[in-house]
Design brief:
About 40% of the residues lie in helices and about 15% in strands. Helix 1 (about 10-25) packs across helix 7 (about 215-225), helix 4 (about 90-110) packs parallel to helix 5 (about 145-160) and helix 6 (about 185-195) packs parallel to helix 8. It is built from 12 helices and 12 strands. The chain has a 7-stranded parallel β-sheet with strand order 3-2-1-4-5-6-10, with helices on both faces. The protein is α/β, with parallel strands linked by helices. The chain has a domain at about 1-175 and about 210-235 and about 280-300 and about 330-335: Rossmann fold. The chain has helices at about 10-25, 65-70, 85-90, 90-110, 145-160, 185-195, 215-225, 245-255, 285-295, 300-315, 315-325, 325-335; strands at about 1-5, 30-35, 55, 75, 115-120, 165-170, 175, 200, 205-210, 230-235, 240, 270. The structure holds nicotinamide-adenine-dinucleotide and thymidine-5'-diphosphate. Thymidine-5'-diphosphate (TYD) binds near residues 83, 199, 201 and 208. Nicotinamide-adenine-dinucleotide binds near residues 77, 78, 171 and 180.
Length: about 350
């Protein structure tokens, strides 16, 4: 089977491609990514030369390009993914997350092939108590969440109208290696290493439900292979944490690793102006994927955070090239003339 993974140069997509190439050497993986600021081919270092892996630089909203590519199934990670950027400018979010997803649904419809659309728990909005289930009302609060919710509704409509074999996953906040350092966890680690302020939005008591990226990837693999068409699956690890607690946990781990320095990293914490429309709490119920498909998260949060801190401390070259902007040139040096533009 030739699986087209879109957005495979990003955080979750690159982790997923590594997982698939190891788990299914019989499948070939085609990575379609247009390398926005969040796409980084260094995330895929070491696998570029594998015979069952191909990279195509291209836009998921390019319908003609999609027609020219051969594939048997699609897994869609490609997105504009950062809430703060969507507050500054929502247009790219609608273009990629809505129009781009619609182009992929259309391409899957033409080929009568399966498509898994990777979405987010943020489509449900904020919840004060209890947990969101798959049938909870979709009430997105940020432009990012609204664009993802729109794509989810299109996926549903393509199933109802055309019988498309499409499933949607809604996962909670991911952490782990290769996450772009504008998101909370890598930002805290890198700012601490560099002695920069750690901005805590509002009172720091907003709650996110955290899952290690490798557990998310395994859930997607399972839902792609065994999930029902026309349905949504929540994916989460029942792991709610307030932002300030996660920040302190990371900084304590880092303090322990640098005992000789007198100053504690926690001195870097700075409360700043809140994000507009900041969702107070995300919390999802993953019972459906657990009972229907037998998925369980495997990574304990404390161990996962600790190994994530270590990964960023040990992979300075990776993030230094992002902070300096060099990573944008990497694909040119590595791939010039060897892939389609
Ligand atoms: P990311 O921003 O790290 O990666 C997105 C990738 O998509 C990048 O490689 C980028 O170059 C590519 N891309 C963007 N626009 C494109 C386009 N028009 N055509 C082709 N490629 C394009 O994002 P991520 O954190 O890896 O998230 C992946 C998916 O998972 C997204 O759909 C996101 O909504 C969803 N998700 C993320 C989280 C999370 O915590 N990060 C949680 C739940 C769901
Ligand atoms: P983020 O990683 O942007 O993910 P999302 O907004 O999709 O949940 O943010 C996670 C939480 O951390 C969110 O409540 C906003 C907060 N946050 C900060 O307090 N400071 C920061 O610098 C960032 C990036 C986020």
């Amino acid at each position: 089977m030739k699986i087209m993974v879109t957005g495979g140069a990003g955080f979750i997509g690159s982790n997923f491609i590594r997982h698939m190439l190891t788990s299914y050497p019989e499948h070939s993986i085609l990575n379609l990514d247009n390398l926005t600021y969040a796409g980084n081919l260094e995330n895929l270092k070491g696998i570029e030369s594998l015979s069952h892996y191909t990279f195509i630089k291209g836009d998921i909203a390019d319908a003609r390009l999609l027609e020219s590519i051969e594939f048997d199934a699609i897994i869609n990670f490609a997105a504009e993914s950062h809430v703060d950027r969507s507050i500054l400018n929502a247009y790219p979010f609608l273009q990629t997350n809505v129009i781009g997803t619609q182009c992929l649904l259309e391409a899957a419809k033409k080929r009568k092939c399966r498509i898994l659309h990777v979405s987010t728990d943020e489509v449900y909005g904020s919840i004060e108590e209890g947990l969101f289930i798959e049938t909870s009302t979709v009430l997105p609060n940020s432009p990012y969440a609204a664009s993802k919710a729109s794509a989810d509704l299109l996926a549903r409509a393509y199933h109802e109208t055309y019988g498309l074999d499409v499933s949607v996953t809604r996962c909670s906040n991911n952490y782990g290696p290769y996450q772009f350092p504008e998101k909370l966890i890598p930002l805290v680690i890198l700012n601490a290493i560099e002695g920069k302020q750690i901005p805590v939005y509002g009172d720091g008591k907003n709650v996110r439900d955290w899952i290690h990226v490798s557990d998310h990837c395994k859930a997607i693999d399972l839902i792609f292979h065994k999930g029902k068409a026309g349905t949504v699956y929540n994916v989460g690890a029942r792991n709610e944490v307030q932002n300030i607690d996660i920040i302190k946990k990371i900084l304590m781990i880092m303090d322990e690793k640098k005992r000789h320095e007198k100053r504690s990293f926690t001195d870097l914490i700075a409360y700043v102006q809140d994000r507009p429309g900041h969702d107070r709490r995300y919390a999802i119920d993953p019972t459906k994927v657990e009972t229907e498909l037998g998925w369980r998260p495997e990574i304990d949060f404390d161990k996962g955070i600790s190994s994530t801190v270590e990964w960023y401390m040990e992979n300075r070259e990776w993030w230094k090239s992002i902070l300096s902007g060099e990573y944008m040139d990497y694909y040119k040096q590595q791939y010039d003339g060897r892939f389609r533009e």
